[in-house]
Amino acid sequence: MLTDGEVIQLVGANRRDEALAEILRAYRRKVFGLAYSFVRDREAAEDVAQEVFIKVWRALPAFDGRASLSTWIYTIARNTSLSALRDRRAKREDAAAPDPDLEVASESGAAELGAENASLLRLIERLPDKQRQVVLLFYLQEQSHEEVATMLAMPVGTVKTLLHRARSSLAAAAGLSPT
Amino acid sequence: MTFSRESLDARLQRIYAGLDTSPGFDARVMARVRGDEQAAASKAAARAEESMRYELTKRRQSWRGRVRRWVTLDAVGAAALAGFLGRVVWTAAADRAEWISMYASQSVTALGVLLALATLPALLLQQKRRTASRPSAFGWPERNA
After folding, report:
1. Could you say which of A58, A91, A124 is where a domain stops?
2. Distance between CA atoms of A78 and A11, rounded to whole angstroms?
3. Same domain, A81 and A12
């Protein structure tokens, strides 16, 4: 994985495509996961992730390393996801009705996972938004509390609290040991 | 709902293990980037062409303006005066060939002096016109005292 300085050097040497290829390798799944945690639909999350990387590519010459590359990318990803979420909500006629895409995604995911995990997935879907996001991002790639905090622009303490609450709720609902 | 004894962590990790983009995602992003690059390049080329055309038009217009500025009353007046003098001399001289050979150099000098002098009244007139039309601090032309 490239360091922030190496990315700046590549961009400075007019090798922006190479820099993007490296960024894609390192952040593709994280950005996709972050987008998915907002829009809760695979296809939409993929569109958002694509948009994020295009924005990153366009803005790379302006990246000066004042913030870390990960913080910078996650900020773009968060803003793009929120904007996509707003668009999706605006498109839906009845905001109170459940998102049909989400239902389909959950059902198809459930079918792949088997009955027990499918039940757990349904329980996760019922968690409050922030708790659900933290759970998804934490378990997506065995990420640290710090990284999830950076992704969601939250204090680490808040991430720990949300994760603890989510685990407790899930364990209680599913009759599992939380650890 | 009953679950096996497997820990919650392990289950959650398994649930999200398969959450990833569809195959070919990186290639699609790179293709879009290249499309974006080409669009930007063609836009830049169009901009460059437009600015070149603008420069050319501006240069042409300034050249035309300069020509128009030269071909003013001064120049036309000077040319008319020169023509008139030439004609007078031509018709007045009985023996033109002899006259020309005798006074050629003096005639050319005199013509030059006359031409130079002819522009002076025209320049003065133009300057006077400019002063009369220059707007004052209040936005309307100053009246000549």
Report:
1. A91
2. 23
3. yes
The pLDDT of residue A96: 43
Contacts of A141 (CB under 8 A, 6+ apart): A29, A30, A33
Q: Is residue A135 part of a domain?
A: yes
ipTM of this predicted complex?
Answer: 0.74
Buried b (16+ CB within 10 A) or exposed e, B23-43: eebeeebbeebeeeeeeeeee
Is the CB of A24 less than 8 angstroms away from the CB of B29?
yes
User: Which residues of B are less than 8 Å from A173 in CB distance?
Assistant: 1
pLDDT, one tens digit per residue, over A67-114 is 888 899 999 999 999 999 898 888 875 544 444 444 444 445 555 556
- In degrees rounded to 5, what are phi and psi of residue B135? -70, 145
Asked if residue B52 has pLDDT above 50, the reply is yes
Residues of chain B found within 8 Å of residue A32, distances taken between Cβ atoms = 19-21, 25
pLDDT for A99: 47
Domain that holds residue A52: 4-91
Distance CA B26, CA B15 (A): 23
pLDDT tens-digit series, residues B5-37: 568 888 888 888 878 888 989 999 999 888 888
Find the DSSP H helices in chain A. 4-12, 16-39, 42-59, 69-91, 100-113, 115-125, 129-140, 145-152, 156-174
A41: helix, strand or coil: coil
A14 reaches B (C-beta below 8 A): no
- Band (pLDDT 50/70/90 cuts) for residue B138 is low
Query: Which residues partner with B135 through β-bridges?
Result: B141
Residues B43 and B113: their CA atoms lie apart, in Å, by 58
